[in-house]
Amino acid sequence: MSTPHGFDLQALAAVNASAAFNRSAGFDVVAAGNGESTIRMNWRDELTQYSGHLHAGLIAALLDTACGFAAATLVGAVNASHFSMSCLRPAIGRYFLAKGTTLRAGRRQVFARAELFAADEQDALTLVATGETVLVPTGEPSRKTDGS
So where are the chain's domains? Predict the structure, then answer.
């Protein structure tokens, strides 16, 4: 379902489920609304790089998705026009939480940022990366996953 201007948690969960990459990586939308979103991904050895840390490509995907979903709660469907990230420490944890926040939602551009946290065995969260995205509202409706 969509809110009058953006997508709610149920709609974003459906969008997430419709993306083959997100399904393959194991992204789960755990919260979304009011310009914010949280994406969770469990640790999997096959998603690491040569030193055994989470691959930077997955870090970027988590941050970008959290930014896009945060923006989508306010303006609907978006596409990224610019993305940057900073890796602050090696990403190792039982699971990861990417928390996206919309900074400014305009008609032509939306600015969002995200933080990626790694959870240890006691569920303590450590900030491992940050990202910022400039997004463009597309005006497109949510992709339907029921075949209609």
Answer: 9-137
Task: Give 103-140 pLDDT, tens digit per residue.
Answer: 999 999 999 999 999 999 999 999 999 999 999 999 87
Which DSSP category does 72 fall into? Answer: H
pTM: 0.91
- 45-66 pLDDT, tens digit per residue, is 999 999 999 999 999 999 999 9
Spatial contact of 13 and 40, defined as CB atoms under 8 Å apart? no
Beta-carbon-side half-sphere exposure of residue 89 (alpha carbons within 13 Å): 10
Fold classification of 9-137 (topology level): Thiol Ester Dehydrase; Chain A (3.10.129)
**How open is the CA angle 36-110-146, to the nearest 5 degrees?**
65
